Amino acid sequence: MAGFMQTVSTLNSAARTVLALAITGLLAVGGWFGYTTYNAADIELRAKDVELAERQKRITALEGDLKTVKQRLERTETALRLLKVDHRLARLTVLDQGEDPSGEPYTLVEFVEINDAGEMIETPRQFRLLGKKVHVAAWTVKFEDHYVETAAIDRSTSLCLFKSIYGDGERPLDAAPLDQAGTRPVAYRGAPPSDLEKRIWSDFWNIANDKKKAEALGIDAAFETAVILEVIPGRQYRIDLRASGGLKIKPDGVAPPRKSPTG
């Protein structure tokens, strides 16, 4: 009986040892699994942080690219809108010519801006000028050929602002104004002007006299030009903007008969 009890005690001790070893093994496996899982999660989180940082870098770079694209688009749209006017045109009609009571010659003219189809784009204006020769002065802007990288714009393309009109018996300082300085000319109105276009119209002479400003706007030259012609009563003349810049004036037929005030 004593031997049997000893055998049972031995078996129990062995069982406890096996159980303890099993529990220790399970705890070790559990710890290793937990450590591995935590470590893997930590690595994954770090990888996500790196990915997010890279995405933010790409977003920042794209925002910079978008700003550059917007600036280029503004330059393109401005240039194309301005340059739709292939020729800045006006019609000059000689209504009357004679001498005043003091014997001084005068010329009465009508000036109106027209489009390429010959249609009026403003209300005609009349000017009584001293002399028989008519002077029409204008400001001209010529763009560089690389003004807009994304548009094929020839270096000879230019735009024009009519400045003033006067006769040869008057001083240029006494000339009647045509386009108002700092405003947007009639021929270029339509879509709202961009900031770039506003700068061109409002800061013309500063641009003309500042090479760096002109270069920043892609302008090759900004200068004043004029046409002069001794006109004949009853005739019409057309004023064109040359493709190379500057104005030209040429006869454009006989003035049409005008209706009397009574119809």
Question: Which features does this protein show?
Answer:
single chain; 263 residues; alpha+beta; 2 domains; five-stranded antiparallel beta sheet; 9 strands; 38% helix
- The largest beta-sheet arranges its strands as 3-2-1-8-9
Report the order of strands and helices: HEEEEEEHHHEEE
Radius of gyration, CA atoms, in whole angstroms: 42 Å
- Biggest sheet character: 5 strands, antiparallel
Mean pLDDT: 75
**Overall form:** rod-shaped
Derived from helix and strand composition plus strand pairing, the structural class reads alpha+beta
Folded structure, characterized:
The protein is an alpha+beta fold and 263 residues long. The chain folds into two domains: 1-83; 87-254, no CATH class. It is built from four helices and nine strands; from the N terminus they run αββββββαααβββ. The protein has helices at residues 2-83, 195-202, 204-208, 211-216; strands at 89-99, 105-114, 125-130, 133-143, 158-167, 176-177, 219-230, 235-241, 247-254. It has a five-stranded antiparallel sheet with strand order 3-2-1-8-9, with no helix packed on it. A four-stranded antiparallel sheet has the order 6-5-4-7. A hairpin with an 8-residue loop joins β5 and β6. Residues 147-156 have low confidence and may be disordered.
Summarize the structure.
The protein is an alpha+beta fold.
Question: Topology of this protein?
Answer:
Layout: H1 2-83, E1 89-99, E2 105-114, E3 125-130, E4 133-143, E5 158-167, E6 176-177, H2 195-202, H3 204-208, H4 211-216, E7 219-230, E8 235-241, E9 247-254
Antiparallel strand pairs: 1-2, 1-8, 2-3, 4-5, 4-7, 5-6, 8-9
